[in-house]
Amino acid sequence: MARVDAAHSIEATNDRASWRRGLSQVAPIVLGYVPIGFAYGVLAEKAGLSPRSAVLMSALVYAGAAQFIATGLLAAGALPFSIVVTTFVVNLRHALMSASLTPHLRTWRPRALAAFAYQLTDETFAVHATRFGQGTPSKVEAFCVNACAQLAWITGSWLGVLGGQFVPDPRPWGLDYALPALFLALLVSQVRGRIDLGVALAAGTVAVGLTWAGLDYWSVVLATCVGATVGVMWEIWTKRQSS
To answer: Quick check: helix, strand or coil at residue 31?
Structure first.
């Protein structure tokens, strides 16, 4: 009996430590998601979405860029089919992100994988990619990051819907800059060498160029492929030079 109690105590201690690590990792995302979610909530309220629909979109869809785009299309009176296709293309990058994390999650059961994939976003992927590179964390730690991030997004969306009636135009507030600022902060934390810097510059340059060329929805996916290709080729070349 004493051994069982000791095992439970150790497990509880490990879970608390995992929660603390997860909270420390997700803190920057939470600070960014609340204002970004607020901006979405304001735009959703201006587009005519009911408070329930706006918050449910954050709970069920949970995709920042797709939600902003879908809200704009709804306000413009677009057909449901066009909204679904557009958001599908925008979120294709998630297939690439999930594929890169797959080798670290081979021991997870299908239910855990489904729950993890459901809450995977660009920002949580950045955190997981860095953490998984140091060794696969516990499920408690990984889900702490995901759950806290989504809770912050839903909270921000709810506050935005409530405050939307008091904000005639959210653009002067600069809330739309919160998302790129958050991405830049996460990017800086991951650049630790020349290869990382080269990949970031290549992907960023391609993304900006494609956006200027009018390929807004495909820019991120194509830039990701170019950046990954540059990284692989650079790493192969570096290994050949050192051998």
So the answer is: helix
**Between 123 and 137, whose confidence is greater?**
123
For 10-67, give the DSSP string. HHHHHHHHHHHHHHHHHHHHHHHHHHHHHHHHHHHHHTT--HHHHHHHHHHT--HHHH
Give yes or no for a contact between 29 and 124, defined as CB atoms under 8 angstroms apart.
yes
- In a 10 Å sphere around its CB, with 0-12 CB exposed, 13-18 middle and 19+ buried, how is residue 150 labelled? buried
DSSP designation for 103: G
Reported as a single tens digit per residue, the pLDDT across 83-126 is 887 788 778 778 878 888 888 888 888 898 889 989 999 889 98
Sequence-separated (6 or more) residues with CB below 8 Å from residue 79: none
**Which two structure tokens, joined as six digits, stand for 190?**
């991951």
Q: How confident is the model at residue 199 (pLDDT cuts 50, 70, 90)?
A: confident
Three-state DSSP string of 131-184:
HHCCCCCCHHHHHHHHHHHHHHHHHHHHHHHHHHHHCCCCHHHCHHHHHHHHHH
d(Cα 177, Cα 185) in Å, to the nearest integer? 12
Question: How many angstroms separate the CA atoms of 115 and 96, rounded?
Answer: 17
Say what the pTM is: 0.71
Distance CA 34, CA 171 (A): 16
Q: In this predicted structure, what is the pLDDT of residue 243?
A: 66
17 vs 32: CA distance, rounded Å: 24
